[in-house]
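Query structure, 119 tokens:
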């Protein structure tokens, strides 16, 4: 099995920054893509950013492009989400997810970490 553990959430003022981390353990040899998602109260979960383990390819939601940066440390099996210029509307539970090679859905999810941005 694969385990994902997020950390780095917290409370920050608007305009501030946070960095989330997601460490992957277990059977990681067939993991192809890592993603960050978020879910605000009363809203559906939405895609934030993604990154491929083996190539330099990333993707972002339009709402975070230019403010958030996803990166990885292959040696540490860890993915990061650097969040700058945070806005109150970024408040949500942030989830890390992993997608296996040859699939289109994310199969493994972390427990989530709360990010709260005050105005």
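Result returned for the query:
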């Amino acid at each position: 099995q694969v385990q994902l553990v997020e950390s780095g959430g917290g409370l920050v003022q608007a305009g501030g920054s946070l960095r989330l981390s997601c460490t992957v353990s277990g059977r990681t040899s067939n993991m192809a893509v890592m993603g960050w998602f978020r879910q605000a109260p009363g809203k559906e979960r939405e895609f934030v950013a993604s990154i491929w383990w083996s190539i330099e390819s990333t993707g972002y939601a339009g709402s975070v492009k230019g403010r958030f940066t996803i990166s990885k440390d292959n040696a540490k099996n860890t993915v990061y989400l650097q969040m700058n210029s945070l806005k109150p509307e970024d408040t949500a539970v942030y989830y890390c997810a992993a997608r296996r090679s040859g699939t289109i859905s994310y199969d493994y999810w972390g427990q989530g970490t709360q990010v709260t941005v005050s105005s």
